[in-house]
Design brief:
The protein contains 30 helices and 4 strands. By secondary structure, the protein is mainly α. Strands 1-2-4-3 form a 4-stranded antiparallel β-sheet. Helix 1 (43-71) crosses helix 6, helix 14 runs antiparallel to helix 15 (339-352) and helix 19 (407-420) runs antiparallel to helix 20.
Amino acid sequence: MEGKTMKIATALLMVVVISLPGYSQSKTFIREYTYTAGDADSKVTSRAIALDQVKRILLEEIGVYLQSTFEMTKQEENGGLKDLTKEQIQSITAGVTETKILEEKWNGETYYMKASITVDPEEVEKNVARIANDEGKVKELEETTRKADSAYAEIAELRKQLDEAKNENERLKARTNYEEASNRLSASDWFQKGYNAADMKDDDNAIVYYEKAIELDPNYSLAYNNLGISYYNKGNIVNAMTDYKESIQLDSHFALPHYNLGIAYYARGDTEDAIAEYEKSIELDPQYSNAYNNLGLVYYDRGQNDDAIAEYDKALAVDSRNPLPYYNLGLAYCAKGDTETAITEYEKTVEINPQYSNAYNNLGLIFYDRGEIDEAITEYDKAVEADPSNSLAYYNLGLCYDDKHNTDEAIMEYEKSIELNPQYANAHFYLGLIYLNKGDNARAVTEYEKVIELESNNSLAYYNLGLAEYNQGDNDDAITHYERSIEVDPQYTNAYYNLGLAYAAKGDNDEAIINYKKAVELSPQYTDAYNNIGLAYYSKGDNDLALENYERAVGIDPNYGLGYYNIGIVYYHEGDKEKGIRYFKKAARLGNSNAQDWLTKNGYSW
């Protein structure tokens, strides 16, 4: 096949319009390409080149189409997409679309390929905007395009060298290099498949594709970097770090793997090494906004808010359109108590990225803490509109409606939060509290059992579970859970008091007295506990100790009508009816209904 050169079969570009339910019209672009093989080509190298070229043609056409689409969208609605170049759109689009091979043929001299890419402008615009706001992803995609361009240019140069070779040694060397360059071109395609899979959260297939890219190009530093990211996403930090380090070994001037290695160290709690990697990343790429941002996060977690703010400001000096530093500035200013500045930073975040759900959520938190419940609800509603899977925002809506005594709406929001995140203990807790307050003790028990399953040391959950069981008359289980609450928190006054109630309900006044006394030991002003100590002694027939404790109760609170009523009962039953009635009247004047009913029934005024 001496003297044959690469050429494009200039077939007609076909655009098929498909209507998909719920979306704007999707467009399928179809292109054909025929590669005429050279002397050094095999079926494998010919296919790699044909695939690369047909993808380039498709992406160029789609880039022009999308750029015109973005230009027709208002600047404020697309977050600045109009400012992207056609080349940038092509690079990013390659990362969010899938090329489908419709037909391919090899006859030993030419490789024919027909391929398509389907785009839904609305979805692609969202994805391009998402990636355009992620500095690391943009760098990866631009590097992928650069690597494929480099491999293709090298193939063209090697073809020329083969044609001009003067001897067999030169031809053999050029052939070897040609095959390696073709492998690098194929590796770029496998890398792209891995990137697309990872973008779809399919890290298992992403790992397979990245490993294939590395098999074809063992020096593919970016593939090792992204292989590490997929392992990290699967929770395998050890493998991730190994791949990041291999990426660095292959390209010591590559900032991305240092940045990702910093993330891995940070996840392990190794903040010193995380700082070192982020600083190395910045040294290699002083324009790397996210590296400054993540360095700020380390300082923020250490409580060094001023140092964190300084790093976030550096991130914004490099890239004022990066929403992450604005969001994190909001966190840092909140931590410093400067909520007004925090509001400004969160508002800048959503101005740049209107889909930044957690920024709306955090704005809601500020308004909620100020008692501005309606304003908080407005922000939480924006949060769930931006991200319907934000379980935290639904939980916070539940708190708001709970505070407004709209329990039905609160239940709906808590249940939505739980539907999205069944492991969210707080949502189960407050849902249980609503059921407890509504008297639906069975459902309360279910929710608190779930809380305890998720948080085995939640003292308040054991306590509320005990309350629900006590309300159902299940005193033994109530005692078990009050005791577990106390075991977790030995200073929990109310748990001792309610443990006393449960023992009293079982007729065990001695245990009841022990626990009531523990309650007043922890809280000496606990009038109900003194009153119930009196009740327990009265039940045991010890009127003197009963009176002593009732009198302590009214001594603490002179308006404690129940205490006066119980004192009256002791005197009345001891035969001093006049004194007893006097105490009944005092209790009645303080609003005690038992005293009022008795006096009315027996013809007394008060």
